[in-house]
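Figure 6 in text form: structure in, sequence out.
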């Protein structure tokens, strides 16, 4: 009130405050973890899972297929052969499945199944606040949902195009595109071992070396999509 109700000034003060800039992770033995491990005094930010729409958009952004255009015709929903709701439509201008989730047409009785698994609000009733849950369905969705499997494949092709044939570079690029950070040395080693083991398994299943390599990389990308670090804000 003393500054003319300037929201810009208020947001600047909040964002530059020492409290706002405190990180979630602390070194071992830091006073915060010792004195207030449950964060009752709000000395750090609590973990916050991404909203359902943001998870979908983040997956599409990592795979390089997110349509960031503003406005226009909404993307409609349709049933696939298994009875699940997918993004698409009968008209050509509603068939863009890569639009931001904001532009997906919301239908009361038929929400997009992928969003519903991650607590998409039920629009048959009022939604005054969002409630996040942790359920086995979410883990199964991350393992088996056709949308996630398909986008992991596209991310793998993007990683291959950017990183080349080096396993270390592929792991590095996969971490950068999904988690927005460089992997630690031990994570690079784990990623290399994972690629090698998965590639061997696909070869034993009669896949060609090229397809086995691509499938192993796709599997690594899907694994990164399913990590808490991808799904949660710190």
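Output sequence:
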């Amino acid at each position: 009130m003393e500054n003319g109700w300037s929201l810009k000034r208020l947001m600047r003060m909040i964002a530059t405050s020492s409290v706002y800039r405190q990180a979630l992770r602390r070194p071992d033995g830091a006073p915060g973890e010792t004195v207030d491990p449950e964060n009752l005094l709000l000395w750090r930010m609590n973990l916050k899972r991404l909203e359902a729409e943001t998870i979908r958009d983040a997956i599409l952004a990592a795979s390089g297929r997110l349509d960031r255009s503003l406005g226009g015709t909404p993307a409609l929903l349709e049933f696939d052969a298994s009875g699940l709701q997918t993004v698409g439509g009968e008209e050509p201008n509603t068939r863009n499945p890569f639009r931001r989730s904001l532009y997906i047409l919301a239908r009361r009785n038929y929400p997009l199944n992928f969003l519903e698994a991650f607590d998409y609000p039920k629009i048959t009733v009022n939604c005054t606040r969002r409630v996040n849950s942790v359920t086995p369905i979410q883990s199964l969705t991350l393992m088996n949902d056709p949308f996630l499997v398909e986008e992991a494949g596209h991310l793998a092709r993007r990683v291959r195009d950017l990183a080349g044939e080096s396993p270390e570079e592929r792991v590095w690029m996969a971490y950068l595109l999904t988690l927005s950070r460089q992997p630690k040395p031990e994570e690079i080693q784990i990623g290399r071992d994972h690629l090698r083991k998965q590639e061997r398994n696909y070869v034993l299943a009669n896949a060609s070396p090229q397809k086995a390599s691509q499938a192993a990389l796709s599997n690594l990308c899907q694994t990164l999509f399913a990590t808490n670090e991808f799904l949660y804000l710190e």
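Caption detail: The chain has three domains: 1-46, 65-133, 141-233.
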